[in-house]
Amino acid sequence: MDIKQMEYFKTIVDTGSINQAAKILHMTQPPLSMSMKKLEDELNTSLFIRGSKHVALTEAGAIFYQRVCRILELTNSTITEVSKAGLHKTFSLGLTPSTIPVVSDTLAKFSDDNPEVHFQIYDGSTFELQHLLDTNVIDAAFLRTPFASKDFKKIEIQTEPMVCAIPDAFMDKSLKNKKSISLKQLSTYPISTYRRYQNLLTEAFKEDGLEPDFFSICDDTRTSLLWAKNNKAVAVFPRSLSVECKDDLTILPIQSTPLETTILFVYSPEILKSNTLLTEFLNYI
Fold it and tell me: Which residues lie closer than 8 Å to 230 by C-beta, 6 or more apart?
């Protein structure tokens, strides 16, 4: 497998057609098809569902496409960085979407004080960012607990409670003028939450002898808020993300100490030894 095969693969996916991809790549269809067949043989799996005119991705193909996009992005950024070596410095940083409201001021301050520094920002889940840390694609990351790894240095940035966004249609007399909501009350409503918080919520409910009614498990808090806005569920998420909420939703803290999440700044001690930008950035944490 090489970079050229990955570029061929991405072009086919982006166009949805081997014929169209061949035209863009200035080659004929047979060698392009042969290259993809060799790629599938090497990976020992089918990447495409081939139709008469168009192709679609298999489940394995969809996963491979995500990885290919990352690799090609990293390849292009590496070429750019090397060609411009000495002109500016680049800080590669991972962010989970839910940490952005909390850490944006820190990043802005660091940028103001270091105008020569450029950024490569990688957005992703905690799991995805841990992989990028493991493979040294990024220098450090802001992410949220739960995060289990003994190989990285972790600095706690902020611990905050989980809150819920309640649609007006769900606001009955028991919640009017309330400043918080109990787990018992919350258990009576359908819940939408971020996938990584499902176990945290389940355990908190279990401790009180309750069972949550999960209407939707999502990979983005904005999806949970969409369900809440449409009167389908109560959205549960970290408090700092309440800035995403509209006026038609009521935000209430949840009465449960275990329902907390912590933003961490994570980096490898080994990278710190040779990365002056990371060393400088730690002064802003």
Answer: 167
Q: How many CB atoms lie within 10 A of CB 212?
A: 19
- Report which of 225, 238, 235 is spatially closest to residue 126, judged by C-alpha positions: 238
Cα dihedral 208, 214, 219, 221, rounded to 10, equals -80
State residue 256's pLDDT score: 83
- Judge whether residue 247 has pLDDT over 90: no
Output the six-digit token pair for 60: 């394995």
Residue 2 phi/psi, 5° resolution?
-135, 175
Amino acid in the structure at residue 111:
S
The domain segmentation of the chain, as residue ranges, is: 3-78, 86-157+263-284, 159-261
Q: Please give the DSSP secondary-structure letter assigned to residue 256.
A: -
Helix axes 3-15, 29-43, angle to 10 degrees: 110
Q: CB burial class (10 A; 0-12, 13-18, 19+) of residue 53?
A: exposed
Does this model's pTM top 0.70? no
The answer to whether domain 3-78 and domain 159-261 are alike in fold is no
Query: 121, 65, 249: which is closest to 241 by C-alpha?
Result: 249
List, for residues 152-209, the tens digit of each pLDDT value: 999 999 998 999 999 988 888 777 778 899 999 999 999 999 888 899 899 999 999 9
